[in-house]
Write a structure and sequence with these properties.
alpha/beta; nine-stranded mixed sheet; about 30% helix; 15 strands; about 280 residues; two-stranded antiparallel ribbon; Rossmann fold
Length: about 280
């Protein structure tokens, strides 16, 4: 069976501290990089990960030719999305902004959604980039703009433990991916409810424990997006686009928890199967 080629958008940083702190760099270098967990979870799911850097000098047609060879893309986590991307003044509590990365990720997301129409999975910052690409807005800092008892940014490693729970929409594709019939639920004969597609699902508590390392979040949904999961304080934690082949995004990091949590592996498996 041929393994799909999955692009992963890189973090980009032009600050010297990235290389100097790691002992690999010199003054004046910039960096394109991703956390190893993205690579590992894609390999485990049967894909070949391919890093997509923030390009500087490549012409647009050459970049598109490269992207066309990919079977899907992950819009990965990283720094804050700049409020200028959704026409809002930047507040003092907004974090680090890298405009080059913002422009790059939004362009890649739009190209995959609208031109080559291939699967997209957004992770953490990726849900925010996708939302902004579709005209949505963000909370710049949850503690300042949307205070609640829910902890959205766990502070200390390890980063895979559950920080809070999210409620999954029972008739969403995420629910079907996480809890297929016969998997810790009643058989099809016992299921007496159906989802919006007319398919039975088991009536259980649709909650999922997730890690959480973000201080920005969706404020208003982008055009065409529908929520699949929400936190106890009503923050949208997962979305999809019903009109597209496969456009999903989650606010947490399934790649952090994939070793111990089969539910997080199912999210990646659903993405890979769509590719």
């Amino acid at each position: 069976m041929k393994r799909p080629l999955i692009g992963v958008t890189c973090n980009y940083d032009y600050r010297d501290t990235v290389g100097i702190t790691s002992g690999m760099g010199i003054v004046g270098q910039d960096w394109n990089f991703v956390a190893g967990d993205y690579v590992y979870i894609l390999e485990k799911a049967g894909a070949i990960p391919v890093l997509i850097p923030v390009y500087k000098d490549c012409d647009e047609e050459s970049i598109k030719e490269f992207l066309n060879k990919l079977d899907g893309v992950i819009i990965s986590g990283g720094h804050d999305v700049g409020p200028e991307q959704y026409n809002t003044p930047t507040k003092g509590y907004c974090g680090t902004i890298i405009p080059q990365r913002d422009n790059h990720d939004i362009a890649v997301a739009k190209y995959f959604m609208n031109e080559i129409k291939k699967p997209i999975l957004g992770i953490c910052r990726g849900i925010q980039s996708l939302n902004v690409a579709l005209g949505g807005t963000l909370w710049q800092d949850l503690p300042d703009e949307h205070p609640s008892p829910v902890v959205h940014h766990g502070d200390k490693p390890p980063y895979d433990p559950v920080v809070h729970e999210v409620s999954i929409a029972p008739d969403s594709p995420l629910a079907r991916a996480l809890w297929p019939l016969g998997d810790n639920g009643p058989s099809e004969a016992e299921a007496d409810e159906v989802d919006s597609f007319g398919r039975p699902y088991h009536p259980r508590a649709y909650t999922l424990g997730v890690n959480s390392y973000h201080h920005q979040a969706i404020r208003t949904l982008g055009q065409g997006l529908e929520p699949m999961a929400t936190a106890p304080d009503s923050i949208v934690e997962a979305v999809w686009m019903p009109a597209k082949r496969f456009v999903w995004a989650v606010q947490w990091h399934p790649e952090f928890s994939h070793r111990a949590d089969s539910n997080q592996r199912r999210i990646l498996s659903a993405f890979i199967e769509a590719c």
